[in-house]
Amino acid sequence: MAVYTDVDDEELIGFLAGYDLGALLSCKGIAEGVENSNYYLHTSAGSFILTLYEKRVAEADLPFFLGLMEHLSAKGLGCPQPVRDRAGAALGRLAGRPAAIVTFLDGYSIHHPEPAHCARLGEALAQLHLAGADFPLRRANALSVGGWRPLYAPFSARAGEVAEDLGAIVATELETLERDWPRGLPEGVIHADLFPDNVFFLGDRVSGLIDFYFACVDSLAYDLAICLNAWCFDAAGSYDAEKGAALLEAYARARPLTAAEVEAFPLLARGAALRFLLTRFVDWLNVPPGALVRPKDPREYLARLRFHRTIRSARDYGLGA
Ligand SMILES: Nc1ncnc2c1ncn2[C@@H]1O[C@H](COP(=O)(O)OP(=O)(O)OP(=O)(O)O)[C@@H](O)[C@H]1O
Ligand SMILES: N[C@@H](CCO)C(=O)O
User: Fold this and answer.
1) Does the beta carbon of 34 sit less than 6 angstroms from any atom of ligand 2?
2) pLDDT tens profile 289-312
3) pLDDT tens digits for 178-202?
4) Which residues 6+ apart lie within 8 Å of 301 measured at CB?
5) Which ligand is nearest to the CA of 102?
6) How confident is the model over 135-145, as a mean pLDDT?
7) What is this model's ipTM?
C-alpha cells in the first residue's frame, strides 16, 4: 500500500467541488506503488485515479508530466488523461500536497512477463519515443549519472545493512560510470520507470502506460536499458536472454539503434541497474513512520548490477549480433 498522505473525506468533497465530476461515491487507497499516494476515486461521473505527489516529484515538474500524458494520448498512445477542473487547471492541492485526477485505464500488469510480453513492451517503448519526439517541453533527468552520488552519499555508511560488499561495489561503479558515461547518444523524451507494474495489458496487447513521473529528456537507449533490467531477469536475478532478445529486437524493428547506442548499451545497463539500486537502497532505509508502503528490495538490483559487470559486449545481450 503506498499511501503517505491520508485524505479527509470532507476535504476531498471540497476538492471535487472544483471539478465537473459529479458526486463522490468512494475513494480507496491503492496498494501498489512506492513513490506517490494513489487512490481509486469513484464518482457519479465514473472511475478515476487521484494522485497526491510525494517527495520525489518536484511540483515545478508536474506541468511537464501532465502535459506529456496529454501529448502522448493525442498521438494515440494509451495513457492516463489529466482531468481539468472548471478553471481549466490539471493540477490542484489536497491535504497539503500537489494533487491531480487522471482517467482510469483498464488493463492489468503482468507480474511474470514472457518473451511475448517483452516484445510488446519493446514496441510500446519505441512508439513512446517516436510519439514524444515533438513534445515541446523539456525536463532534465534528475536521476541520471550526475544524481547518483548525491543520492547515495548521505547513506553510504549504512550500505553494509543491505549487503556486505554493497559499499565497495557502489564506490567502484560511481567512479567508472561518472568517468565513462556515454554522451551524445540519440536523445528524446523517455519514461524512465517502465517496469511491469506501469504497463497494462488486455489479452496479448499493451493497453496503456502509466506513472510518467520520472519522465524526462535523456538517451533513448537508456530507457531501453531500464526496461531490460525490469523485464528480462528472473526472480533469482538471472538474465533471460530470450526475453532480452525479444525486447531489443521488437524495439529495434520500430526504432533501429545506432552503432553508438549498441556500443554503449552495457554501460547504460549498468547505470540503469545502479540508479534503481540506489533509490531502493535509500527508500529501504527511510520508510516514513506510519506510511503504508512496501519498499522494493535493493538486492534485486544489486544482482542485476553484478551481472552487467561481467558483460564485455552488447552482443552478450543479443545486440549487434
Ligand atoms: N490511470 C490509472 N488507471 C488505472 N490504475 C492506475 C492508474 N494509475 C495508477 N494506477 C494504479 O495505481 C498503482 C500505483 O500507481 P503508480 O505506479 O503511478 O504509483 P507510484 O507510487 O508512482 O508507483 P511506482 O512504484 O510504480 O513508481 C498502479 O500500480 C495501478 O495499480
Ligand atoms: N519502479 C521503481 C520504483 C519507482 O521508481 C522500482 O521498482 O525500484
Assistant:
1) yes
2) 877 778 899 999 999 999 999 998
3) 999 999 999 999 999 999 999 999 9
4) 229, 273, 274, 276, 277, 280
5) 1
6) 97
7) 0.94
Q: Residues 30-43: what's their mean pLDDT?
A: 89
| Closest C-alpha to 213, from 31, 41, 56, 37 | 56
| Average pLDDT taken over every residue of the chain | 95
Supply 89's cell numbers: 487547471
The span from the CA of 146 to the CA of 41, in Å, is 38
Q: Which residues line ligand 1 (CB under 6 A)?
A: 2, 30, 32-36, 38, 49, 80, 102, 104-105, 193, 197-198, 210-211, 213
Pick the closest to residue 306 from 99, 208, 163 (CA basis): 163
Of 144, 141, 170, the closest CA to residue 155 belongs to: 170
Angstrom distance (rounded) from CA 107 to CA 201? 5
The C-alpha cell at 253 is: 524493428
- Check residue 287 and give its pLDDT: 85
Q: Which residues of 200-226 are buried (b: 16+ CB within 10 A; e: fewer)?
A: bbeeeebebbbbbbbbbbbbbbbbbbb
Spatial separation of the C-alpha atoms in residues 231 and 33, rounded to whole Å: 17
Query: What is the pLDDT at residue 321?
Result: 58
In sequence order, the 6+-apart residues with CB closer than 8 A to the CB of 310 are none
pLDDT at position 56, please?
Answer: 84
Distance 253 CA to ligand 1 centre (A): 29
Minimum-distance ligand 2 atom for the alpha carbon of 230: 7
3-state secondary structure of 49: strand
Is residue 318 predicted with pLDDT exceeding 90?
no
Cβ of 48 closer than 6 Å to ligand 2, yes or no, is no
Domains and CATH numbers, the chain: 9-103 (3.30.200.20), 115-317 (3.90.1200.10)
pLDDT given at position 293 = 76
Residue with the smallest CA separation from ligand 1 atom 24 is 33
Counting beta carbons within 10 angstroms of the beta carbon of residue 148, is it exposed (0 to 12), middle (13 to 18) or buried (19 or more)?
buried
